[in-house]
Amino acid sequence: MRSSKFHEDSPMTRLVQRTVDLDASRTPAGATPSTPIATPLYWPALIFALTFPTLLSYLDFIAFSSGGGEPNPAQQLVYSGGKVLQFLFPLICFFLVYRRLPRAAAPTLRGLGFGLGFGVLVASGVVVLYYAFLKNSVLLASTAVQLRQKLEEFGVASPLGFALFAFFVIVLHSLLEEYYWRWFVFGWLRKRVSLLPAMIISGLGFMGHHVIILWVYFPDQLLTAVIPFSLCVAVGGAIWAWLYERSGSLYAPWLSHLLVDASLFMVGYDLYFGG
Description:
This protein has helices at 11-17, 39-63, 73-98, 112-134, 143-154, 159-189, 195-217, 222-247, 251-273. α8 packs antiparallel against α9. By secondary structure, it is mostly helical. The longest helix is centred in the middle third of the chain and has 31 residues, at 159-189. The chain contains 9 helices and no strands. The protein has one domain.
């Protein structure tokens, strides 16, 4: 049945459908295009979603940090519990609004070319920047020590532990972040604001927790490392939001995201194990 407010094929219909399922190109069974977001839930949920990852990073990397040397059960518990809450939160909000859970769609080729190209471009830039300019530089003087401490706290300081943790972050965590930041945060923003503000706000939210992480890995390098790299993260998040908007699918930004994460772990491996 068609909505009494607007036609099913109108731009407004597609906008409302954007966050109904994980693939925005599919209309879900049992949901109508005019299904609203409950007003009391919208802004509190969105503000929480934008800020909670930053709080979690502060707890993980600063408040519960023991300085390394051995596994840190308290920090691991906070990290694990916080991640479970973070990635369950969109499902809880979705269920409260639509009274059902979203469903994932089959992989699609839409946007994969751009996602691959952008991911390769950024990943190559990271690797070239590190090996050509930053390795053994003053900028990274404390980074290897900080990295060792965090790996020891997580209990993944061995080559096998590092490899398993890298696989989790590169493949699984990057997908969960795309689901959280692009499908949920950006998608909910698009229900109330136009494309550019949604890209900027979601990109800045995505940047927030990276500021904490970068401050830990680059102590006393606020202007030379933390701010520039954080802004790069915000731009990347905004571009991935645009790619999600254009492709209607999480697969393209996920591919791009995991390539960038892979390059960062390549640098991290050389910093820690390269000697």
